[in-house]
Amino acid sequence: MRKNMEEYLYEKIAPYREERKEKGMEDRKTYGGIFDKRTLLAFYKLLKRGTIKEVEFPISTGKEGDVFRGVGKEGYIAIKVYRITTVNYKGLSKFIDGDDRFAHIHKTKDTIIFVWAQKEFRNLRDFRKYGVNVPEPIDRWKNIVVMDYIGDENRAAPLMKDVMETLKNEMAYEIIEEMKKMYKAKLVHGDLSEYNILVWDDRPHIIDVAQAVPLDHPLADELLLRDLKNMVRVFKKLGLEMSVKELAKEIGVI
Question: Cβ distance 147 to 78 under 8 Å?
C-alpha cells in the first residue's frame, strides 16, 4: 500500500484513534481497535476502484464495528467497518451455519468477519428486492460494507431509540409494513428493535441486517419470536397495544 494512502487514512481517524499494539502481531497494529493493516488495505482497495472518494467522520460505534460517513461516486455514503481483531467466532458462526446461501464458503477464525460482511451485503440486497426500506448496498471488500447514507449534509438519521418521544403511533404501522415485506422476503432480521431502526423523513429505515437468516434456518423461529416481542414492546411505547400473536398474524406468520 502506498505510504501516502496510509497517512491519509491515519489522518482521517486521528481525532478518535487510540493506538495500541496487538501482542505478537506487529503487522496488525490497530487504531481504536478497528484500523489494523488488513482493514487499511481494504480501504485502499475501495478507494482505488472509486467506491470511496473520501472518508469523513464516524457516525456510530457498535459491538462489532464502526460506521463512517464518506463521499462516493454519487454523494454521501455510509462505510461500515467490521473489527477483525476482536471478532467473536462462535457468536457469528451460529448465524452463518445453516444458511444455505453461504454453505459453499469455507470460514476460519481469520476469515469469518469477511463472510459476515458478505452476509450483510447479501441481506441488504435480498431485502431490497422485496421493497424493504434498508440502505442500498453499494460495494463490499473484505470487512468493509459500503451502503447508501441515510441523512443529510448536517446530520445522520437518528436511531429510533433517540427520538421515541417525538414519534406517533403511525410509526408503528410503518414498521409493521416493513416487517410484512421482510417476511415476504423469507428472511428474519433477528435483532429488530429501536436500536436497529433509523428514522428519517417520517419513515423507518431498517439497519444492521448481517445476522438476518432465512426462514428455514435452525434459529429462524427463535429469532422471529424475539423480533416480535421486541416490536410489541416498542409499539406499546408508541401507543399501540398489540400482542405477539396479533403482530404475527398481521405480518403473515400465522
Answer: yes
